Amino acid sequence: MKLDIEGVEKRYGDARALSDVTLRFTDGVVGLLGPNGAGKSTLLRIVTALTEPTDGTVRWNGTDIVETPRAIREAVGYLPQKFGVYPNLTAEEFLSYLAGIRGVRNPDDRIEDLLDLVNLSSDRNRRLGTFSGGMRQRVGIAQALLSDPSLLVVDEPTVGLDPEERIRFRNILAELGEERIVVLSTHIVPDVEATASDIAVLDGGRVVAHEPPSDLIDRSHGSVWERVVSDAALDDVRAAHTVCRTTRCRDGVRVRIVSDDRPADADPVEPTLEDAYLHLLDGRPRQ
């Protein structure tokens, strides 16, 4: 299985959402990282044939999906960032309804398997309006898998989830990536760190990196530091450096800094993927 994105651009009038995006994805979980507004959702809408690129091509196993959108529509399962449900339907009724629309063969068996996969078998007869955000997201994954897609695309799937639900969701995606391409789009770095074997980073509509997480981390060695400062000095440190994290300690505040130059009184530390991501984006933390 291959998804080839070549020279893709997307413009809305004079505004350019994507510029010369070229990527190749194969089996496994691919993390699509970037700050809000980087163009991730626009790229996913192009990849799923919901919108066409202004320029460039997207090929699924060699077939141009602009010329033949059916090729990707038959292969893809999609969980958009905003996923709506019918609150008065139960989980089983909702999936049965969608399976009928999509022409899924043997839908009862498929729904049974999917409810088990997302750990909702015991809640199958509860109305969706009573579900937590994490449970609804798991229903979202189940509906995206109804047709047993070769390509699964999920957009910001863990936003708003509590830590336990986030971990459960990551585990599901990692399992699914063993048999298909999973494109996980997010600005939450730990979600990618826990699941992806390949990472593409978008910033300002452009690809600024595409490599394994370990390679991205290696590039930030020697640029991550920690030092302990007083509460009174913390604002000055924030003004002078990119601060990734602060933790309270006995002697004050332990500050983790991304900087190519060694800050005063700081010790080098091993970088994480989040450190490497901030370092890649010019050391500017994004909201």
UniProtKB/TrEMBL annotation:
Keywords: ATP-binding, Nucleotide-binding, Transport. GO terms for molecular function: ATP binding; ATP hydrolysis activity. PROSITE patterns: ABC_TRANSPORTER_1, ABC_TRANSPORTER_2. Residues 3-229 form the ABC transporter domain. Signal peptide: none annotated. It comes from the Archaea. Belongs to the ABC transporter superfamily. This is ABC-2 type transport system ATP-binding protein. It comes from Halogeometricum rufum.
